[in-house]
Design brief:
- The chain is of the alpha/beta class.
- It has two domains: about 5-10 and about 255-355, Aspartate Aminotransferase, domain 1, CATH 3.90.1150; about 15-255, Aspartate Aminotransferase, domain 2 (3-Layer(aba) Sandwich), CATH 3.40.640.10.
- Helix content is about 40%, strand content about 15%.
- Strands 2-8-7-6-5-3-4 form a seven-stranded mixed β-sheet, sandwiched between helices. Strands 9-10-13-12 form a four-stranded antiparallel β-sheet. Strands 1-11 form a two-stranded parallel sheet.
- Helix 8 links the parallel strand 6 and strand 7 (about 200).
- Helix 1 packs antiparallel against helix 10 (about 240-250).
- The longest helix has 20 residues, at about 255-275.
- The chain is globular, with a radius of gyration of 21 Å.
């Protein structure tokens, strides 16, 4: 058995995106973005977000985040983010490196999100000592968060109002932005530029692309600085058409949202099937394509032994006999794969003596 819920990075390339790469592979085209595919991407992004903007393909989400934050924050400044944010926990200091030394200022919060009240407190704590503390310059919000939770338009508006009062710029890490839009069933502009967002890291690799992410800039005064930083960071592709073709196909005929809806639905199905089992509960609500399940350690071990793939996830407050596992659904995840996992977990519970149900000895 090889059913793997470890990540949405493990999937194949979507056929529509592979076809777009193939179509772009006919004849020569001007380099460094002076091509029809890159121009088509800009037009399509403006149609989707219904505003003027600039969009720049890059190779990775780390590059997108780090370059965006380098534009928004000076080397001596600070960026507020959640304590579990990807830029803090999984990007090996790239934001600090690309910015020339900017500091990440973490904020706690339930389920991977922080509130406007928490941001207000963090701003107050970080200011008032002059040059002895880094001046806050920006906030970075993960949409969806590292715990698979989603900021609503109202929550974003509250955070934006607080940030703007303090003169802070706003970045969104949208590695799973499509999943958030699908869940909220809202206009993409409602959780970006209409909510005061300056820059968005728009993910595609987790949702069907080969190696394509993009930085979307809503404040066009930031374009020139970004373009120089992109070149300096080695993210200005000579054969830009192949990255642009992927992103254009991704955003065409709602492919990005259809894929996200499938992934979200499978995560919801996982949660529904697991939480009816004794001894299983959720560490966070399932709002996108990630399910964080707390279960008896013996159950997690048994599922691993059967060939199911997932990551153990550090979760404070668990008992010694419990494990939290992260199950990530993707656009390729099927109902049958989900149901096989649930059935295997249910069989483990059924085979336990009644006195042990829900308890791993």
């Amino acid at each position: 058995m090889n059913i793997d819920f470890s990540s949405d990075n493990i999937t194949t390339i979507a056929p529509e995106i592979m076809a777009a790469i193939t179509e772009a592979n006919h004849g020569p085209a001007h380099s460094y973005g002076d091509d029809d595919w890159t121009r088509a991407l800009t037009r399509r992004a403006r149609e989707i977000f219904e505003t003027d903007l600039a969009i720049y393909p890059v190779a990775t989400g780390t590059a997108a985040n780090a370059l965006a934050l380098a534009v928004l924050c000076p080397p001596y400044g600070g960026v507020f983010c959640h304590e579990s944010a990807h830029i803090e926990s999984d990007e090996c200091g790239a934001p600090e490196f690309f910015s020339g030394g900017a500091k990440l200022l973490t904020i706690p919060g339930v389920g991977g999100k922080f509130t406007a009240t928490a941001l207000t407190h963090a701003i107050r704590t970080a200011t008032g000592r002059g040059v002895h503390k880094v001046p806050p310059a920006a906030i970075s919000l993960s949409q969806a968060s590292e715990w698979g939770t989603i900021y609503t338009p109202a929550e974003l508006q509250a955070l934006s109002t607080t940030a703007r009062k303090a003169g802070l710029r706003i970045h969104v890490d949208g590695a799973r932005f499509a999943n958030a839009v699908s869940t909220l069933n809202c206009h993409p502009g409602d959780i970006t530029w209409r909510a005061g967002v300056d820059m968005l890291s728009l993910g595609a690799t987790k949702n069907g692309a080969l190696a394509a992410e993009a930085v979307v800039i809503f404040d066009l005064s930031l374009v020139e600085a970004f373009e120089y930083r992109r070149k300096r960071a080695g993210q200005l592709f000579s054969k830009m058409r192949f990255a642009a073709a992927q992103m254009t196909a991704y955003l065409t005929e709602d492919l990005w949202l259809r894929h996200a809806a499938q992934a979200n639905a499978m995560a919801t199905r996982l949660a529904a099937g697991l939480t009816i089992l004794p001894g299983v509960r959720l560490a966070a609500p399932v709002q996108a394509n990630e399910c964080f399940a707390i279960m008896p350690e013996r159950m997690a071990t048994a599922l691993e032994a059967q060939g199911f793939g997932f990551y153990r996830w550090a979760t404070p407050g668990l008992a010694a006999h419990e494990d939290a596992i992260r199950l990530v659904a993707s656009w390729t995840t099927t109902e049958d794969e989900v149901d096989q996992f649930i059935a295997a977990a249910a069989l483990f519970c059924a085979n336990l003596p009644s006195r042990q149900t829900g308890v791993a000895e």
